[in-house]
Amino acid sequence: MNNRIGDLLKTILSGPEQDYAESQIRRVFGGDDPDYEGETLDEWCSDGVGCMLCITPRSGSTYLSQLLESTGRIGIAQEFMNLWNYEKNISDILGALTQIAPRDEPVFEDGLTSLSSYVRNAVRISQSGEGVFAMKGDLYQFMPLFTRGWVHAGMQKIRFVYVTREDVLMQAISLFRAIRSGEWSSDHVRLQEVSFDRDGILDQFDYLLQMMRRWEMLFSLLGIHPLRVTYEQISKDPRGAVRRIASHIGLRGAVEIGEAQLKRQRDEQSELWAAMLHAETASLLRNSVAQ
């Protein structure tokens, strides 16, 4: 008898992203620590709570992370599991955590040679004074946490927030431009100008839709019911978005946000490209009946 759930999970786990993630983990770390196979982020956040920002690229998640950190009550929502330059990212993240760690607390355990020891340290050091840690990542960055059982449904201390964008085509245009230009945020330098490329944009459109579908499959099959926040909601009412997340985590009292360094990158060029694709789609639909 075929295992239908297994077949569905294969669609989530298959692909070059998953293979790359595991190859990077094997390369950077010696392997997984068997002593912690039965533990989860529940144990690793000790007496605190955790917020898992499950994101899709170009959904305003970096801006949201800065807002959350600016409250002083929510941990540093870094992409601890960013895999695309894993060794450098881990070095940069741990170096940043070293600078903010309390002087009387050891930052790293001796022999940081496993993914589990890295995650445990990142969780512990990035917690706020109230014991709240936050971590953000897309589906492929977080998947190693799910496949090792460190994150799953029914966790008592972990809250899930799903960050998407209502206008997926504009999101795809933003992702396409970021990849081609190297300008991932307003504080990055643009490496080159980007020209309109229909196929390139639609490749990212398809990539985003696949990721969203896989997120929804994973949430539903595990029985996870995340708080849903969109780019549009964050842009329109950043204070309201942060307060919704704070309430979801269980924080009490007033939660105020400070200034975020990042600025909105959407501009007239993105609007023009979207209008071109809208017009082409409408034309193809009108002609489809005649064909």
Characterise the protein shown here.
The protein is an alpha/beta fold and 291 residues long. It has one domain: Rossmann fold, CATH 3.40.50. Helix content is 52%, strand content 8%. It is built from twelve helices and four strands; from the N terminus they run H-H-H-E-H-H-H-E-H-E-H-H-E-H-H-H. A four-stranded parallel β-sheet has the order 2-1-3-4. Helix 1 crosses helix 9, helix 8 packs across helix 9 and helix 8 crosses helix 12. The chain is globular and about 65 Å long. The termini are far apart. About 3% of the residues have low confidence.
Key words describing this protein structure:
alpha/beta; Rossmann fold; 291 residues; four-stranded parallel beta sheet; 52% helix
By secondary-structure content and strand pairing, the structural class works out as alpha/beta
**Poorly predicted runs:** 102-110
> How many domains, as an integer?
1
Report the CATH topology name. Answer: Rossmann fold
Number of strands: 4
Give the % helix: 40-55%
* Count of helical regions: 12
Beta content: 5-15%
One letter per element, helices H and strands E, the order comes to HHHEHHHEHEHHEHHH
